[in-house]
Each structure stands twice: as structure tokens, then as C-alpha cells.
Amino acid sequence: MNGGNPQEALIDHKNPEKAMALEHTPEWEQLSQNHLEGRTAAFFCYGDEGGDELDAYGRPKLLRHKEYFDPAQEPFEDQRQAYAPLVWQCRYSGIEVPDALWRYQVFGEGKKYADDQAEDMVKNTDAKAHFDDWAEAFSGFV
User: Fold this and answer.
1) Contact at 8 Å (CB) between 87 and 102?
2) How many domains does the chain have?
3) Which pLDDT tens digit goes with each residue over 66-98?
């Protein structure tokens, strides 16, 4: 989110020893300030829970060796958390992401990928209502 050192000449392009030393100087705080620091971001994320690509046991149909993993070990019970690394990287970079403006909506579950595009969302009144609610919350925040 912040792109690293904007003045590579200070560290002879990528000298790791010089880079580590620079981080301990007063100059580093100013150099490393993210140009987006202090701003606010919002995310409306959606997913299809695997669309029509999962078998009856929750494994991708295309897998040849289905025994290699247990679908019960899905890392995200709440699929919103699949986007947590992006949100937290923003936060670590000084970009505010209020929880109320970070939403996740299931859209297109059980459908083919071709029938599950962003432009199809406007035809889905439930998904559209969730997006409109997020947009209203975002607008109200701004």
C-alpha cells in the first residue's frame, strides 16, 4: 500500500544494510509516509461461494486428487475475512477502513461464472439492496 522507499539513491538502489540503517533515522518517517495516509477506504466485496464449481462435498469439481484436502478446513467460515489481508494492509499503511464500510455479500451462489458477473448484480434485487445500503453508508460517512 505504500510502495517502499521513494529515494532509492539513499540506499544505493537496494543495499539491504543501508536500507535497514535508514529505517532507524529521523528522515525515514517522512520518507516512508504513505501518500494515502490519513485517507479513508471502503470495500464492497462479493463472492459466489464457489458458484457451480463445487461437488456435493464442497471440493472443486476439477480436482483429480480430492483426498488432498478436507473442505471442512476451509480457512474462512466468514468469507468476508478472505479480504482481511487487504483491509489490514490498508490500516497498517495509515489508510482508515471503518468496519461499517467493509462489507461482503454472497452473489451468484450455484451459478455459472458467465452468469455471475458484476453487471448481473443489478438484476438481483437482494444483492442490489445490499450494495445500495453500503453506498448509502459510504455516502453518509463522506
Assistant:
1) yes
2) 2
3) 899 898 888 888 999 999 999 999 999 899 999
For residue 108, which of 45, 43, 44, 50 has the smallest C-alpha distance?
50
Q: Are residues 102 and 118 in the same domain?
A: yes
Find the Cα–Cα–Cα–Cα dihedral 86, 90, 96, 99, rounded to 10°.
20
Cell of 60: 472443486
Same domain, 73 and 137: yes
Question: Which cell is 30 given?
Answer: 517522512
DSSP 32-56: T--TTTT-B--EEEEE-TTTT-B-T
Residues 91, 106: one domain?
yes
- Amino acid present at 87: V
- Burial class for 134, CB neighbours closer than 10 Å (0-12, 13-18, 19+): buried
Q: Is residue 48 located within the same domain as residue 112?
A: yes
Residue with cell 461499517: 100
pTM: 0.73
Give yes or no: residues 68 and 108 share one domain. yes
